[in-house]
Write a structure and sequence with these properties.
Shape: globular
Oligomer: single chain
Order of helices and strands: HEEEEEEHHEEEEHHEE
Radius of gyration: 19 Å
Length: 231
């Protein structure tokens, strides 16, 4: 009985890689992304690990893509799918800006991303967070999970590591936080997710989005606020 079960598991492992629970053609993905609006900006953050099954293909990837001057997209799911989506959306938003003579709103960017995800939902594996600032709505965050529902939310957490940190962010987030306080919370939350989620790891990238400019920050793996070097 044990031998038979072992042979069956070995066959599944051979057919579908290191994750025997996956279906044929299914790919294991994982990440942790987060976006939190503050009184003076929006803070977005993500881990930097790109994995293919149990193999880490890139440990310093940038999962935060700029769509427009003050609009950013945090990507989770298939790296290839989300990179293609952000390239398309960035192209269309640039054309819209040229035609109208003004910067696109976060709402327009989010719904354009939602439309592209929904129209190709059977071919793509993409869950994204679109956030930023515009003169119409100010600071805003939109979450677009798998299936392409578009939701405007107070803050957004997504990816395989998100389940580990919802309680932490619910407990410590305040709408009146400054961007520095928000960046500290984002780093702390992502670091906790990286410590618990096997598909999140590497280092942490954050961006503070403000009307007068954007500030990028990189935290290497040996300087995390929590984890192997933070205990």
């Amino acid at each position: 009985m044990i031998s038979s079960r072992s042979n069956q598991q070995q066959q599944m492992r051979t057919s579908h890689g290191d994750y025997p629970g996956l279906k044929k053609g299914e790919v294991s993905t994982g990440t942790t992304i987060i976006a939190i609006p503050m009184v003076d900006g929006v803070v977005v953050g993500a881990d930097c690990r790109v994995s293919t099954g149990s193999y880490v293909a890139n440990r310093v990837s940038d999962k935060i893509s700029q769509l427009s001057t003050h609009i950013f997209c945090c990507r989770s799911g298939s790296a290839a799918d989300t990179q293609a989506l952000t390239d398309y959306v960035k192209f269309y938003l640039n054309n819209l800006s040229v035609e109208t003579g003004r910067e696109p709103t976060v709402k327009v960017a989010a719904h354009l991303m939602r439309r592209m995800c929904y129209d190709n939902k059977e071919k793509l594996m993409a869950g994204v967070i679109v956030s930023g600032w515009d003169p119409v709505d100010g600071f805003s965050v939109y979450q677009i999970p798998l299936g392409a529902t578009c939701l405007k939310v107070p803050f957004a957490i997504s990816g395989s590591g998100s389940g580990y940190i919802y309680g932490l962010v619910d407990s410590e987030y305040r709408p009146d936080m400054t961007c520095e306080e928000g960046r500290t919370l984002v780093k702390k939350a992502v670091a906790h997710a990286m410590a618990r989620d096997g598909s999140s790891g590497g280092s942490i990238r954050t961006v503070v989005i403000k009307p007068d400019g954007n500030d990028r920050d990189y935290t290497p793996g040996n300087s995390l606020p929590f984890g192997p070097t933070g205990y």
